[in-house]
Specification:
Layout: H1 3-19, H2 26-38, H3 41-44, H4 46-55, H5 57-67, H6 69-75, H7 83-86, H8 104-128, H9 132-152, H10 167-177, H11 187-197, H12 202-227, H13 237-265, H14 268-285
Helix pairs in contact: 1-2, 1-13, 2-9, 5-12, 5-13, 8-10, 8-12, 9-11, 9-14, 10-11, 11-12
């Protein structure tokens, strides 16, 4: 594989890693960058290129697992951890009640709606929604949703940490997550906005979003690999490996930065960025 092709994989990995957990749509950014400049379909083929945009998220998933490793150990019952070890309540906020703790069942309840819709609609999404124009629609509509979340959220968050999330909130966030199946809308943008409207703090909604992202992103990647296995060749393997490593490194850095800032800056700056980006890309592309 040529050096230029490897550089393209690194660039797409950087785009994925920097944008996966910010509410700006990593898939949307990869589609825009790829369609406008990198043209991966020309040397990978359509279905392999689309699968790459899904599978590369495994690098970001690994970053989540590392950052929330204590939380996953607790969820899976592999160890009894203290609240200090879990480290999910932002400094300065009150602790969650001693009897409350996020459970694996909360995650499963949140995953169910998007898992069903994603399985049913995957072929349609791959065939019709992986384009720059559809991404621009998702960027703008998602931005408006984020602005509404900041504007109309309850004055005082009832759920300050992820351990205070109820099953009703988990299911409601899961239903809202379904709209992120439209590329450009953003999984984290939809779920954090939905969580905030349901009375969660921005940090609690972000923590729940990232923890919930691991099984759903891993499942989507596995399904995409199995359905498009016949399109993969050994020549494409270095492209996937390099993209994976690049995505992992940059996701690890950007996610730590995002979690420190989200309660202070909230969603409005990201919404403005999305609208500006959509306008610029529209002027250039159309």
């Amino acid at each position: 594989m040529e050096l230029l092709t490897i550089v393209k994989a690194i660039i797409l990995g950087i785009v994925e890693g920097l944008t996966e957990f910010a509410p700006v749509s990593s898939t949307g950014h990869m589609i825009i960058v790829d369609d406008m400049w990198l043209k991966s379909q020309e040397f990978l083929g359509k279905y392999t290129a689309n699968s790459f945009k899904v599978v590369i998220q495994l690098g970001s998933i690994l970053a989540v697992v590392i950052i929330f490793r204590n939380r996953f150990i607790d969820l899976l019952g592999l160890g009894k951890l203290s609240r200090k070890d879990l480290a999910v309540v932002p400094e300065g906020q009150r602790q969650a009640p001693a009897e409350g703790r996020l459970k694996l069942t909360h995650i499963l309840v949140g995953l169910l709606p998007a898992g069903i819709f994603g399985f049913v609609l995957e072929d349609y999404i791959d065939e019709h929604l992986f384009s720059t124009f559809t991404v621009l629609i998702g960027l703008v509509v998602g931005a408006l949703f984020m602005i509404c979340a900041d504007r109309f959220a309850p004055g005082n968050a009832r759920t300050e940490s992820v351990d205070q999330i109820t099953y009703r909130q988990a299911l409601s966030v899961g239903l809202i997550q379904c709209i992120s199946l439209w590329p450009g809308f953003s999984r984290s943008g939809s779920t954090i906005s939905g969580g905030v409207l349901l009375g969660m703090s921005h940090r609690a909604a972000a923590d729940f979003t990232f923890i919930m992202a691991v099984p759903i992103m891993a499942g989507a990647s596995l399904i995409s690999l199995l359905k498009n296995w016949q399109y993969f060749t050994l020549d494409a393997l270095p492209f996937f490996i390099v993209g994976f490593i690049s995505a992992f490194v940059f996701a690890l850095v950007s996610m730590r930065f995002f979690l420190k800032l989200i309660n202070r800056i909230k969603l409005l700056p990201f919404a403005i960025y999305r609208i500006v980006l959509a306008g610029v890309v529209y002027l250039i592309w159309f």
